[in-house]
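Subject: two folds for Thursday's group meeting

Dear M.,

Sorry for the delay on this. The cluster queue was jammed most of the week, so I only got both jobs back this morning. I'm pasting them in the order they finished. Each block is the input sequence followed by the predicted structure tokens. Could you check whether the formatting survives your parser before we put anything on slides? The first protein is the one we discussed after the seminar.
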Amino acid sequence: MNEFRNISKVGFMKHNGGLEFRQLTEKEYEFKTEIQDYHINAGGVTHGGFIMSMLDSGMGTAAHQLIEGSAVTISLNTNFIGGSKAGDKIIGLAKIKKKTRSLIFMYGQLKCEDKLLASAEGIWKII
């Protein structure tokens, strides 16, 4: 397996603490972070906006591995399933479902200690 690399150094999620990213297979990628106090909402759990941002960044980074240019998110449908708190280590999975000449279709999920936190389906436009 490939080693994790910190993608915050290239601008992804830098303002939120960064993600580490690695390739698992030709079509599967893993990313991770640790939840910080500033990711927590008034209800005491990780803010949904951060969850979506983590999915978007991890899945988007996976999309960029397939192409020489760039890709932008055109759709990201997210299902919130569980909660997490400060100190939790979150592991994300991005899976390439299909790539056409102009679009990349993906599935993503976030887990904490094997508990599913969120899942997502997304489409990236190759530009």
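Second protein, same layout:
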Amino acid sequence: MARLAVYKYLAFMMLVATALVTAFTLAGLIGGFFAPSEGNTALAMLVYVLPLLVLANAVLLVYWILRRKWIWCCMPVATMLLSLPYIGTFYRPGLFASQTKGKSSLIIATYNVARFANEVSPFRSESILAEMRRQQVEILCLQEYRDYSGDRSNTERYQQFYPYKAVGADDMVIFSRFPILDSQTISFGEGTNNSAQWAELNVRGRRLRIINVHLQTTGISRSLRLAQKANYQGQKVEGNKLLRMIYGNYTQGMAIRGEQADIVAGVRDESQVPCILCGDFNDVPYSYVYRTLKGDMTDGFQECGTGYMYTFTGKKSVRIDYIFHDEQLNGLAYYKQNLSFSDHLPVYMKIGL
């Protein structure tokens, strides 16, 4: 009898766990619809643990199949089916290859170059330029760009291959092999080093607007640096205090990124010509930032990418760099490259005109 009671109790707890995981997953899937600045930080945070929640659903599904409790399989099955669009933002099997021949196209790349690691030599800068030339990139959007490596001008070298450039605020630049007709910086106001920019180009007789974005950082690295500095000075930082610091900085960063995304989306919507929007969003798919910047645009990876897509190479490999385009254009190829010059990876897209 005691064994039967324990068995029933465990079965009940697994059922409760299934219901909770289902509820949290569904909440995470809609969390990106709510701006974090509106007090929905808890709901918005669920977006960031969606991979774990999807995995938990898969584990629970296997559990109920092994138990042959088919009715309880319905919850994880339904939840995973609803999660398929989310899964498609970072994994695509690539069963259907794009046909790229015989089409007028351009190749665009976005890359956070991390200020070329502040090197005094031009090694990283020149290596990145050489790789962009090998990839035949015609429009290059850079974030955390640094004009000088030592006493050598990076811009002068880059303009030997990209004769046109549009410089934004601080660390933003667009290099182009096509004439730049107009450009402007998108300011996010005081109190942040981040910004965005746009440039309108004459691409083989067609006018396109390129929007280059670098949004607020997550704040995690800053929290860890502060904690490390305090420990170095002999001030003990307890685990709970560190977690509160990380959570506070992260939620603050979410709110700031949400407001910045609203500004960029407004500039995009005002454009009278087709847009390509790319850059370092510092945010994951399905977040408020992702949904706001994507709007009615097409996520290039979902259109023509393959495999598992991640662009940040830290301890948690996540996708935070993107290329979107308006529906008047069509994607032909989308891929990243595993270069070691930054903590980000460059993202490339071939777009048909």
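Two things I noticed about the second structure. Confidence is low (pLDDT under 50) at residues 223-233. The chain has two domains: 2-87, 105-352.

Cheers,
T.
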